[in-house]
Amino acid sequence: MAQQMVMYDQEFQQISAVCDRLAREASAKVVFLVDKNGQLIATHGGENLDTTSLASLTAGNIAATGGIAKLIDEKEFSQIFHEGQRDNVHINIVGGRVILVVIFDNRSSLGLVRLRVKKASEELSKIFDLLLKKADQPGAAESPFAEISDEDIDKLFTD
User: Fold this and answer.
1) How far is CA 77 from CA 31, 61, 69, 97, 115, in A?
2) How far apart are CA 32 and CA 54, in angstroms?
3) In angstroms, how far is CA 47 from the centroid of its own chain?
4) What is the rounded CA–CA span in Å between residue 19 and residue 28?
């Protein structure tokens, strides 16, 4: 099972900045980052889209593609591309941990998107490496409620 990741505000801001910059530099309509369980981490654009469903379906797409990869003795397919009449979807696995999705139209090109995704993926990998190091530090996984006892809780709910 994958290690549960804790997202800190500083890293969330850095991740959001990378997604924003990627959307701008790739002329993308939507950029979002999803964990492999389908949880949306960050998004740029897509105000009229159901990004929660997109995130979940993208994770399912990665899982299904992973099954295909195993059948043909591949580790995984790190990039997936779907071409539509109006919009295209480029999906990239970042550091084996998260899924970066870019939705773009004819204002951009697959070559430009791939180039910008490569740079963004490198930046995101570094951020997630730092997050994992933070999580491994002593006391990092400790709950903010660890110092509250059952007795303290009982006192809150008694007159």
Assistant:
1) 20, 11, 7, 13, 17
2) 9
3) 17
4) 10
| 9-139 CATH fold | Beta-Lactamase (3.30.450)
Per-residue model confidence as pLDDT tens digits over 26-84: 999 999 999 988 899 999 988 888 988 999 999 999 999 999 999 999 988 889 999 99
Q: Compute CA distances 88 → 16, 25, 128, 142, whole Å.
A: 22, 16, 27, 42
Q: Which two tokens stand for residue 6?
A: 């804790």
Region 119-144 average pLDDT: 78
- Joined tokens for residue 41: 């981490």
Strand order in the sheet with 30-35: 40-45, 30-35, 98-104, 88-94, 79-83
Does pLDDT of 131 surpass 60? yes
Lookup: tokens for 35? 């964990």
| Domain residue ranges in the chain | 9-139
Q: What percent of the chain has pLDDT over 70?
A: 82
